[in-house]
């Protein structure tokens, strides 16, 4: 799992989440929500900044 800038209709499987190593962030939102869309650049920056 990596940063995915587009929302998907498929949720990650519980087993996939439980087996993840290291920090994990699950962000829930929709493509039609203004708040969700406005947050995307900030979330991406948090994942790509060093």
From TrEMBL:
<dbReference type="InterPro" id="IPR013766">
    <property type="entry name" value="Thioredoxin_domain"/>
</dbReference>
<feature type="domain" description="Thioredoxin">
    <location>
        <begin position="14"/>
        <end position="48"/>
    </location>
</feature>
<protein>
    <submittedName>
        <fullName>Thioredoxin family protein</fullName>
    </submittedName>
</protein>
<dbReference type="InterPro" id="IPR036249">
    <property type="entry name" value="Thioredoxin-like_sf"/>
</dbReference>
<dbReference type="Pfam" id="PF00085">
    <property type="entry name" value="Thioredoxin"/>
</dbReference>
């Amino acid at each position: 799992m990596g940063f995915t800038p587009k929302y998907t209709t498929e949720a990650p499987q519980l087993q996939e989440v439980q087996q993840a190593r290291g920090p994990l962030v699950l962000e829930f939102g929709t493509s039609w929500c203004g708040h969700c869309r406005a947050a995307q650049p900030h979330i991406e920056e948090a994942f790509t900044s060093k």
